[in-house]
Amino acid sequence: MIAIIDYNAGNLTSVKRALDFLGQKSVITSDFSTVVDAERIIFPGVGAAGRAISDLRQRKLDRAILEVFNCDKPILGICLGTQIIMQRSQENNTVCLGLIKGDVKLFSESLSDGQCGRLKVPHMGWNSIRLNKAHPLFDGVDPSSEFYFVHSYYPVPDEQDKILGETSYGIQFASVLISKNLIAMQFHPEKSGRPGLRILDNFCRWNGKGYAE
Amino acid sequence: MLSKRIIPCLDVRDGKLTKGIKFKGNVDIGDPVETAARYYEEGADELVFYDITASHEKRDIMIETVRKVAERIFIPFSVGGGIRTVEDMREVLLAGAEKISINSAAVKNPDLISMGAEIFGSQCIVLGMDVLRVSISEKIPSGYEIVINGGRAHTGIDALEWAKNGENLGAGEICLNSIDADGTKDGYELELSRLISSNVKIPVIASGGAGTPTHLFDVLSEDKADAALIASMTHYGTYTIREIKTYLHERKIKVRMNW
After folding, report:
1. Would you call A122 and B122 a contact, using CB atoms and an 8 Å cutoff?
2. Domains by residue range for chain A, with CATH
3. pTM value surpassing 0.80
4. Which among A10, A172, B43, B204 is least surrounded, fewest beta carbons within 10 Å?
């Protein structure tokens, strides 16, 4: 069973629907022991970091996530879920979970594509990813695939080896992060058509390990 | 880099498309769910549903449609038409829509934008603007006025002013519909698009007037819009999404070519 963590942060049902479509059993839950006992967990979310963290703490789900992380079960973070695994976020000046060292920053207002001008914030729409190395979650995903993003903040990990994939939007930012059994993506695989579904399907089979170097 | 989005718009009344949609190969489809699935397969980047159901009692039918669409397609879609309260918004989002579009209701009650953004997040709230070209006046300095109720009622509100206001209230995106261009197939209102897009930070979807791929090139080049709404040009099988995207791709407009 896959536990989709419910902490009042936006559209959880779309992740559940994608898993239903793939024939994968999942449950949306905010119950500590359901999360801890799950075979794997998905940590989705849209919304603001400050509110998300306080909801997580209130439900003791911060501890549940840490426990799952420490016992090597596969964890997938999506969008806001990718930001609040970092140490700090500029959004609402929030102290986050700290599973990966580094900060979450706001896209600059003067973001430019270097040609005809100013880029919009939020970064909303389809963009590609450059992978730094192969990973089981991207098996069978065409490298030219694009994914659906919608966010104004982006993660900046301290350690380069935590960056699996990067995306360009005026700057290069880390759009896919890894740390052992944790993989986190800034885009929405559940809204990214066939390549996104493939990533979710791969996650459902993932053993929590990367390929040997 | 970010791709420009191509977004088919489907009008739905009482759970059915108002006009049957014909895909190449002469398949006639009048069912919004089947049509959505077909556009998803054909490479649409997003979909817009516009509910033109007249009676409020029949809104349940639309919610059921949204639910069925959400089980079949895995790209974002928005729903507009008849959304007047935060509760209406919640219902549509829970049924599986990614975004809600508010238009006349936001003009009558701008707080709806801020309340929606506060509760569901700005990324959910699309401000739909119906705009009519008028003579420049003290009240309408941009020469573009907001109209409501399907373009029938003038509001005396300047379109540029309203766009900035909507952004400040928390709208995450603007869907900019030119009443002058709508239905003409003569191309988008480029000046309007440029004006609004260059004066707000949030993405702008151009709407109204698309007839050929050239029209999409015109509005998506030089940052006049971030996305383009289309209807009849693909609804009646004149073009496929792939044909439109290939045309744009060959002319260096970045679009998603792999799906």
Report:
1. yes
2. 2-205 (3.40.50.880)
3. yes
4. A172
Looking at the complex, report in whole angstroms how far the Cα of residue B74 sits from the nearest Cα belonging to chain A: 5
Question: Considering chain B, what percentage of its residues have pLDDT values greater than 70?
Answer: 100
Instruction: Tell me the pLDDT tens digit for each residue of A53-97.
Output: 998 999 999 999 999 999 999 999 999 999 999 999 999 899 999
- pLDDT tens by residue, B96-132: 999 999 999 999 999 999 999 988 889 899 999 999 9
* Domain spans of chain B, in order of start: 5-250
Q: Which of B17-21, B163-167, B209-213 has the lowest mean pLDDT?
A: B17-21
Can the peptide bond before residue A122 be classed as cis, meaning omega within 30 degrees of 0? yes
Catalytic residue among A79, A91, A123, A204: A79
- Reported ipTM: the value is 0.94
B227, A125: Cβ pair inside 8 Å? Answer: yes
Question: Does A213 have pLDDT greater than 60?
Answer: no
**Disruptive mutation site among A150, A169, A175, A188 for chain B (greatest number of B CBs within 10 Å):** A150
Superfamily of structural domain B5-250 = Aldolase class I (3.20.20.70)
Q: Which residues of A touch B (CB under 8 A)?
A: 10-11, 13-14, 17-18, 20-21, 46-48, 109, 113, 116-127, 142, 144-146, 148-150, 168-169, 190-197
CB contact under 8 A, A126 and B98: no
